[in-house]
Amino acid sequence: MNESLDFNVASDVTQGSGRRALMHLAQGFALAGGLTFMALIGMSLVSIVGRKLFSAPIRGDMELMEVGASFAIAAFLPLCELRGQHIKVDALTQWLPVRVRDLLDVLAHLLCCAVAWIMAWRTTQQMFDNHENGDVTTLLSFPLWIPLMLIVPSLVLLGVCALARISDIFQRMGGRA
Fold this sequence. Notes:
mainly alpha
């Protein structure tokens, strides 16, 4: 439980302007996700108080919570990947040489990239299907393609961040060789 809440990530890899831009973009996505969650918390609070005190909840509050949370959660993933803060179970690999662990990390980041881009592709397909079919939420008739459209850029950025992590590992491995 020694996690850092600092956004300034000290890296042993020299960060160029592209990497700094990627970090700023990932931080911007995370900030948008955080602001979305704050708005959802406020909406939920107003709805709960309205329901309990005035019998007047916000109509469709659960639908708005689902739609907003799906975007916000996806928005946090790129920064989590870029900072290397995903949950990592390394109890079985601690005894392996550092180079083997680095190669396993490369494999994990490659899989993360592949899954992120496959999810982006499939989410895009689902977005087009929902738009074509006119799918909406039950109470508010909110178009379901809109939150899907907001999730896709986060998934694409997640894949790019995974590639940046692979680059970091190869640079670090090159320095140890």
